[in-house]
UniProtKB/TrEMBL annotation:
Keywords: Repeat, TPR repeat. Residues 1-29 are annotated as: Disordered. The keyword Repeat applies. This is Tetratricopeptide repeat protein. Transmembrane segments: none annotated. Pfam families: TPR_16 (PF13432), TPR_19 (PF14559), TPR_2 (PF07719). InterPro entries: TPR-like_helical_dom_sf, TPR_2, TPR_rpt.
Amino acid sequence: MALAGRVGYAQTEAPTPATARQPAEGEVSVQPLPAKPAATTLPDRASAYYHAAMAHTYEEMATNYGRQDYVTRAVEEYKLAMDADPGSSELASGLAELYFRSGRIREAIETAQELIKKDDNNLEAHKVLGRIYLRSLGQDQNAATQTAPNPQMVDLAIAEYKKIVSLEPNSVENHLLLGQLYTVKHDSPEAEAEFKKAQSIEPASEDVVMNLARLYAENGDLQRSADLLAAVPVDDRSPRMEFALGAAYEQLKQPKNAIAAYQRAEDMAPQNVDATRALAQALLADNQLDAALKQYAILEKADPEDANTLNRISEIQRRQGKYSDALETIRKARAKDPNSLEAGYNEGLLLDVLGRYDEAITVYKQMVDLTSHANGAYTTEEKANRSVFLERLGAVYHEENKTSDAIATYQKMIELGGDYAKRGYQGEVDTYRDAKMFDQATAVCRQAVAANPNDRDLKLLLAWELADTGKLDEGLALANSLLKGTSADRDIYLQISQIQARLHHWKDAEEALDKAAPFATTKEDKANLLFQKGSLAEQEKHYDQAEQYFHQVLDIDPNNAITLNNLGYMLADKTARYTDALKYIRKAVDLEPMNGAYLDSLGWVYFKLGDYEPAEDNLRKAVERTSTDPTVHDHLGDLYEKTGRIRLAAAQWEISIQEFAKSASADVDPAEVAKVQKKLEGARTRLAKQDSVIGGADKQR
C-alpha cells in the first residue's frame, strides 16, 4: 500500500546570472535581506507578521517558478519572523512544513522535534513528523526493487499518528491513515478498530468503506468484504465501490453478481476503461461471448494499439468456432506486439485447429526460438513459457506422424527438469505408442524411472507399459509396490483398475475401484472415480449403468470433455438416441476442437443421422489427427461405402486392418477386426466384379 506525503517543490536549481536582471512580469524581485533586529525581551509581532508574509510570498513563488533560491529566501524570512517572535509555535511549524515540502527532511525533523520538546501537544509538529515518515514508507514501496517497509519507520509513523488521533480525535483522515499503517504492520485488529472509529464519525464515507473492504479481502474474508460493500445502498455507491464489489464477487466465483457490479461501475463512469475491461473479462469467464465481444470492441476503439484486447477478441472468436476470423485477429495482435507469447501461442493453436499443420509448426518453432537461451539457463517463469511451446510443437509433430521430430522436441522439455521433464517423458511415450513402437515406449519409461527413482507417476507409467506389452505380473507388482495406505493410493488403484480392464479382468478392475473409493474426497477425485466406473461399465457392455455414472460426472463437472465425448459416442454407437449423442459430442468438440477422437465421434454421430457432408468433414479431420487409429479409418470407410465410393472405402478398411495388426493386443477386439475384414473382402469382391464388367465392355468396343 503506497502512503504518499504531500507534493513538494521542484528541486531544480534556478539560474544564477553574474549580473543583476529585471524580474519577469508577475515575478517579485529578490532584495537583500535586512539586518536581524536586535534581541528584545518582548516579541515584535508586527515584524514577525511582515516576515511571515514575505515567507509565504516566496513559498508561492517557489511553487510557481520552481526556483530553489525562492525556497532559501522563504526559509530566511521564517527565521527572521521567529527572531522577532521566538515563542511562536505557529512560525516554527510553518518552517518545519516548508523544510518538509522542499525536501530538507533532516531540518524538518529537527525543527518539529524541537517544537515537540517544548510542547508535546503541538499538533502541527506531530503532523509534519507523521507526513515525513509516511513519505519514507511511500518511497520504499515505490522503489524500483520493492522491499518490505522498514519496521522501525512503520512504528515511528504509528506513534505519531496515535498522538495525532488523540489530539484531533474527530478527523476521519487521521483514523484512516493510522488504520492503513496498522495494515502495513499486519495488525488487522488495530487496523479494523481505527477504520471503524472513522466509520462512526462519517458512516457514509467512501474511503472508510473501501479501506474496511480491502482489509477484509486481504485477510481472506472475501464474503465479509462483499457483504460490507453490498450493504451500501445502490444509489449511494460510487464507481470505485462497485468495481471493488465486482472484484470480490469474481473471487467468490459469483460471476452473475460480479457482472452486475461491473456493469453499474461502467454505467456511472463510461470512460473508465478499467471498469469496461473488468466487465468484459467477467462476461468472458461466464461464457457470455457476444456480450463480452461488445465490451472488447469498445476497448479496441478506445485503444486500437492494445494487443491484449485483440488477444481476447480472438479468443472469443475461437470459442465461437469462427477460426478464420480468430486467426486474422490474432495476427493483428502479433503485428502490434511481435514478442507476445500469448499471441504466438494462440496463432499456433488456431493454425492447428484449421489443419494448417506446417504453418503451426513454423509459428511454434519461432516461439521456441524466442524463449531460448544459448547457455541453457532459464528462470522458473522462462521454463514454464518454454515448456508450453515445446509441448505444443511436439503435439503437432505427433499429429503429423513426424515421430523423430516429436521425440527431439519432447527431449528439450526433459532437459528443463522437474515437472516439465515428466511431461516430456509422457509425450515421448505417447508418441511411440501411437507409432506402434512399444519397445521404445517401454525403454523411455525405464529411462524416466532411472532418472527419477522416487517419482510415483513415472513408475505408474512404466507399470502400464509393462502390462500392455505382456508383462502383466511385473507391471502389477510395480504398481502394488507403490501402495502406502494413504490418500495417494487413490491414483494407484485407478491405474491398477485400468490395467486389469484392458486385459478384460473385470472383477479385479472393479475391486481396484472399490479400494480407490475411500480416498476420493474432493469433487475432482469423485468425478474421476465415477468416470472410471462408467468406462468400466461400458467395456463390460453395461450401457445403462455406464450412462448413469457418466451423468454423475457431468453433475459435478458439466464441462468434462472426455465424459461428454464418451457418453455421446456410446449413445451414438450402441443406441438410437442420436440427437442426445450429438448434443454431448458437439460440446466436447467445442471444448477441445483439436481432439481427433472427439472429431471421430462427431463424424460418426452425423453418419448415424444420415447427414453425410458434416460426417465426412469431421471423419477426414479425425483421420488427419489420429492416422494410426484403426477405428477412425473404419468409420471413414463406412462413410465412403454409404456414399457409393467403394474404392475409397476399401482403402480405408485396408488401413484399418493394418493398424489393428500393429496395435497392442489389449487394444484389439478380434470381433471388431473380423467385421472390418469382412467389409474389406466384400468391397474387394464388388470392385473385382466392377472391373470385370468394365474390362468386358472395353473388349467389345
